[in-house]
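Comment thread on ticket #2218

A.B. wrote:
> Attaching the input chain for the structure job we discussed in standup.
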Amino acid sequence: MGSDPTYTSPVKRIAVLGATGSIGRQALEIVDAHPDLEACALASGSNEIDSRGVEHVQVGGDLTALLEKAEPDVVLNAVVGFAGLPATLWALERGVTLALANKESLVAAGELALAAQERGGGLLLPVDSEHSALFQCLEGRSAARRPCIRSSSQPRAARFAAGAGRSWRA
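C.D. wrote:
> Ran it. Output below, let me know if you need it in another format.
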């Protein structure tokens, strides 16, 4: 018993929202590779899901109801668009760790999300590559002294280059 990690490390229950997308599929590969992680819920907006033996599986519908039933320790929100906002708020208000790949939740309702985080104390971790890189820079885990945020949108980038926008250099 002494050094067996199964007796000392509780299994983290992960809800994967957006399970059929690129980020969701990669997350499930990570869960499969780590015995201390367990998928407790899978959700997709419209694509069928291989249940993989997970008890709570949903296509479409109310994500917060799924989360209430599944009782996750971590919510990976990789849902496309504004549809991810209720799950973001649910996790943050309940003190559940939120691995967020859904930037629309913060763009559309950043103040609401931050207020929910203050009330519940949930940890917000950016998952998408660009957001995670910025997070790591802001935490001091990078040697970058002046990160520069660029837009991937050509029309917006052209406006900024022409001087119509403002610089977002740190």
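A.B. wrote:
> Thanks. Noting for the ticket: The first strand starts at residue 12 and ends at 17.
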